[in-house]
């Protein structure tokens, strides 16, 4: 399996002088991609000779040259353009050419629109017969991509089969996303089977479908938007497995969608999510999060939530590529709060851009501590902050709504009645608490049962291998970690109430970035809240035992800490913040292999 990179989405960076040929090729090699598929216009932008030199220096080759030959809009110029394009192919050392049938710019649209689909097909047959013949003389194979332009007759199975059968030697470059343009209900696997004998290359483009102004428009008026492979609506996993089973040996071309605000070498980290997903599926090493059911949510809930209290989400920046890559791992649950800066804005933007609201689980919270560490939570706060969250997220309901803290000055009756009211209004699916003791939860749920109301359905205390020795933030944070809280854990296990464990890896304590006993090293890694809550001898002892077990099992400290969480008898989900798709993949993998009770006991006590 060979990976190639479609490079056209990087053009804006080239124009801004933030990317050159050498950086482009380095980005590819850093991700194990040894080929590029440039469009002809890029040869001028990078400089053809500079691109050739960079390719030679990095052992990157040109898989296929993509050229715009407008045989529909300007047929009298097409033959001359074709000769120039074939010369470029020879100079770049590629034997594959993809011809794009014009972009239908304003000065050519009139003629294109004056042609019937039959006339356009006749023009295409005439031109491609000539192109195949001329290219064949030079050992170059010509291909055509299923087009995303509905005005042209090259997007449905029937149209592509007609053209391919009438032009012997013409090959298909299958764009997995474009098949939805001509038929929004197209079956990717069926499309592939129907045209398999003609396929030369495959452009792997996963997509979201919805109303996205400026994107490629389908015949039903909706648009498709490219997303990280595995995070869209197409059955990418099944498709890749089918290609492998069929012995496909052509290139798999990553149709990379450069994220807004990403420049230069930073594209490499985003591109890694595409390449890692494709390789893992092909090699059958891919992982997906497991799920639990929470009555009332009405959709599966991944056992790992992505925590959004991190940069750049706290600033409200767009992080679509990161959320795509996490979602591709099966993580469909996201933990947010009014107290997390502008994270709700970032999260809501992604959901809007992906049109995936009914496939994701949104958790947000109200009633956090104020700047002085004081708590005030009551009906007024709940109503006000819920409306703010809905507006900021751009949603009409929240799947899981939590009270971020308990306020003992507010009776449980006020909480229960207010939350039931909002649930009846359809603004909340289920509700619960964070940092509440089991005694207060019991009191609240007893009130709910006595009055025919719904009680708290979930709880989010601190839980993990690290003991929360002191309150990290103020406001009476609640933990169920450590031997002192064994009775709390037994209660949760007995009640079957889902536990959404925050700071599950001790806010970086078990990342492996410092060794047990290295307090000075830990201070450089951990933030103030983590130092206050977790930097104590009891956790250094646990880290030492974690290092021992990790060495025995040939894995990392963070893997062991994550596996510990899922070895619990409680119905646990872990809230994990990371800006690395690869780190999240490791978390998911670890969550699928929980520790045994004996291994967990060793981490807690040192006893074997």
The major pleated sheet works out as:
9 strands, parallel
Which quaternary structure do these chains form?
single chain
| Nearest-integer average pLDDT | 94
What overall form do the CA principal axes indicate? elongated
Q: CATH top level of the largest domain?
A: Alpha Beta
Percent of residues in beta strands: 15-25%
SS content category: alpha/beta
- The CATH topology of the largest domain, please? TIM Barrel
How helical, in percent, are the residues? 40-55%
Total helices: the number is 24
- End-to-end Cα distance, whole Å, is 46 Å
In CATH, the architecture of the largest domain is Alpha-Beta Barrel
**CATH H level, superfamily name of the largest domain:** NADP-dependent oxidoreductase domain
Report the count of strand segments.
22
Strand order of the largest sheet: 3-2-1-12-8-7-6-5-4
Overall number of structural domains: 2
Low-confidence stretches: none
Q: For the CA atoms, what is the radius of gyration?
A: 28 Å
């Amino acid at each position: 399996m060979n990976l190639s990179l479609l490079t056209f989405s990087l053009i804006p960076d080239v124009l801004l002088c933030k990317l050159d040929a050498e950086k482009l090729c380095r980005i590819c090699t850093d991700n194990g991609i040894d080929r590029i598929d440039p469009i002809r216009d890029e040869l001028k932008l990078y400089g053809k000779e500079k691109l050739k030199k960079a390719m030679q220096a990095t052992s990157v080759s040109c898989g296929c040259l993509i050229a715009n030959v407008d045989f529909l809009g300007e047929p009298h110029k097409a033959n001359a353009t074709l000769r120039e394009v074939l010369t470029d192919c020879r100079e770049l050392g590629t034997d594959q050419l993809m011809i794009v049938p014009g972009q239908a710019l304003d000065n050519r649209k009139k003629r294109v629109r004056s042609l019937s689909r039959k006339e356009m097909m006749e023009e295409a047959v005439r031109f491609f017969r000539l192109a195949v013949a001329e290219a064949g003389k030079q050992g170059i194979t010509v291909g055509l991509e299923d087009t995303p332009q509905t005005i042209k007759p090259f997007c449905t199975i029937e149209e592509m089969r007609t053209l391919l059968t009438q032009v012997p030697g013409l090959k298909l470059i299958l764009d997995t996303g474009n098949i939805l343009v001509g038929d929004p209900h197209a079956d990717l696997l069926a499309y592939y089977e129907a045209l398999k004998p003609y396929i030369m290359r495959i452009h792997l483009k996963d997509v979201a479908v919805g109303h996205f102004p400026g994107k490629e428009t389908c015949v039903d008026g909706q648009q498709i938007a490219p997303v990280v492979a595995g995070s869209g609506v197409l059955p990418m996993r099944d498709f890749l497995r089918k290609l492998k089973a069929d012995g496909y040996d052509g290139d798999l071309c990553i149709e990379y969608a450069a994220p807004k605000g990403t420049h230069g070498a930073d594209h490499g980290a985003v591109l890694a999510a595409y390449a890692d997903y494709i390789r893992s599926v092909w090699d059958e090493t891919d992982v997906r999060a497991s799920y639990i059911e929470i009555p009332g949510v009405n959709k599966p809930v991944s056992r790992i939530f992505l925590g959004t209290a991190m940069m750049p989400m706290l600033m409200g920046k767009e992080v679509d590529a990161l959320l795509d890559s996490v979602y591709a791992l099966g993580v469909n649950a996201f933990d947010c709060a009014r107290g997390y800066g502008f994270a709700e804005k970032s999260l809501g933007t992604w959901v809007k851009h992906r049109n995936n609201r009914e496939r994701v689980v949104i958790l947000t919270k109200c009633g956090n501590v104020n700047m002085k560490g004081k708590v005030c939570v009551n009906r007024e706060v709940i109503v006000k902050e819920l409306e703010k969250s809905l507006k900021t997220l751009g949603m009409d309901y929240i799947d899981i709504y939590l009270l971020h803290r308990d306020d003992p000055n507010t009776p449980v009756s006020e909480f229960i009645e207010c939350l039931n009211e909002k649930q009846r209004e359809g603004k909340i699916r289920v509700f619960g608490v964070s940092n509440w003791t089991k005694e207060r939860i019991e009191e609240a749920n007893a009130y709910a049962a006595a009055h025919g109301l719904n009680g708290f359905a979930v709880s989010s205390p601190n839980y993990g291998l690290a003991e929360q020795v002191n309150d990290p933030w103020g406001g009476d944070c609640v933990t169920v970690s450590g031997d002192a809280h064994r009775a709390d854990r037994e209660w949760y296990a007995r009640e079957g109430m889902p536990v959404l464990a925050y700071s599950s890896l001790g806010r970086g304590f078990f990342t492996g970035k410092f060794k047990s006993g290295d307090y000075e090293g830990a201070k450089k890694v951990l933030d103030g809240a983590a130092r206050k809550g977790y930097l104590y001898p009891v956790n250094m002892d646990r880290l030492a035992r974690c290092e021992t077990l990790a060495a025995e099992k040939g894995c990392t400290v963070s893997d062991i800490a994550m596996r510990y969480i899922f070895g619990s008898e409680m119905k646990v989900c872990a809230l994990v913040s990371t800006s690395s798709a690869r780190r999240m993949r490791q978390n998911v993998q670890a969550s699928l292999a929980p520790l045994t009770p004996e291994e967990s006991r060793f981490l807690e006590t040192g006893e074997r």
